[in-house]
């Protein structure tokens, strides 16, 4: 796996909008938060473009992303927000050029599609975590600043990732490369040239506003596609607002265990990354991790940057 260069004080972060259109005020606030963290934020007028529900045309969004990868003055690329639109970029990106210019790339939700592209097509470590016009605009405690900085600046492994409220759904420990993202986006990759690869991996899944039967259906989709057959371990996010109703007499955790009852890999539930109410964690995809579901933590066995 190609590892991007670590950030340092004064590094320049390029901001892109690869999916839906962006609120100007929120992006400006998020950029100010990046400056507060010690970085320089840079973005072009393209980030405020709009066509339908996209942040500009597909061609323009892809070109801006490629420009950020090749610009030697840009040290990392952070996404402004998710929404929808990243699928349209996949055939418009140049794998060889991206591979030759590894950089930190950070986002979640619809950006899951691009995280998987970087991990599987470009063999590059990518980062599932807070976005500029969302968590950074809101500031701490919407995101975990210490975890973010350790992932993006430290060239040694060993970071232990924990959070309040974690639940052990199935005990045990496992080791493998971390991958994953937003569940609904991952199922949308199946049957394409960009589908998720899960063999010998530790898989992170999260989503928002998906009712239990919809989560069940998506897990079954992955199951029938064989994506759990050689999986080493599974970690769920907080699954924000993933309930049928306020007074349902079962938990999503029960549905998950029932749907995955034929497997033996350990399962941890409730890690706040992506869609979550606060404390959004940064998770590097493509690095070796150890999942300990008994003691409820992840360890990054290697650094995500160099």
Distance between the termini: 12 Å
Question: What is the element string, with H for helices and E for strands?
Answer: EHEHEHEHEHHEEEHEHEHEEEE
If you compute it from the alpha carbons, what radius of gyration comes out, rounded to the nearest whole angstrom?
18 Å
> CATH superfamily name of the largest domain?
Murein tetrapeptidase LD-carboxypeptidase, N-terminal domain
Largest beta-sheet details:
8 strands, mixed
Query: Architecture of the largest domain, according to CATH?
Result: 3-Layer(aba) Sandwich
Strand order, main sheet: write it out: 6-14-13-8-9-10-11-7
| Uncertain ranges | none
For the record, the CATH class of the largest domain is: Alpha Beta
* Mean pLDDT reading: 98
Which word captures the global form?
A: globular
Secondary-structure-derived class: alpha/beta
Quaternary state reads: single chain
Whole-number tally of structural domains? 2
Q: Supply the number of helical segments.
A: 9
CATH fold annotation of the largest domain = Rossmann fold
